[in-house]
Amino acid sequence: MAEPLFKQLEQLQQQFRGHPPVAQWNPDLCGDMDLVIQADGHWIHEGTEIKRQPLVNLFASILKREGRHYYLVTPVEKWRIRVEDVPFLITQAARDDDKILFTTNTGDIVALNQAHPLILKPFGDPPQPIPYIEVRDGLLARMSRDVYYQLIDWADPRSPQEPPARLCQMWLKSDGEEFLLGEY
């Protein structure tokens, strides 16, 4: 990627202290960019992994989803990219007495709460229900395996209240809410 674009994105990030208001930006589509966010969280540009984490973080800050497509957006440009599963991975979890916080591979911190609930979606081969969480504006993050096992350790096992009867349900508590982690 070009250095001027990096500097422009860095200025936008500083200006908006976090994430720019990409939902408000609707420039015309410029085309498709040879950029893939792989299911394992790696960002690949023209066949080469982007190893500069600050650059990945800046691109993540201007990521936008419209329907089933993902775009990198500035006030004047819009480039379609490819995302194999979801753009982010949850790489860390922390909790206190009342709240669970997640950190993504791009540094976003998201609280598990009513605004950011767990979503169980099939992933893998064979597909298994895995927890996802919305990071922002329809952009989802999938739990890494390590975090998923950590959540299982924190979960409260219960017998299901309604049919179909499963052996066990696993529930998490955060921010005054309860979230189904899975059924086994």
UniProtKB/TrEMBL annotation:
Pfam families documented for this protein: DUF1285_C, DUF1285_N
Lineage: Bacteria, Pseudomonadati, Pseudomonadota, Gammaproteobacteria, Cellvibrionales
Signal peptide start and end residues: none
Database matches in InterPro entries: DUF1285, DUF1285_beta_roll_sf, DUF1285_C, DUF1285_N
Residues in DUF1285 domain copies: 20-86, 87-180
Protein name: DUF1285 domain-containing protein
Gene3D superfamilies recorded: duf1285 like domain, duf1285 protein
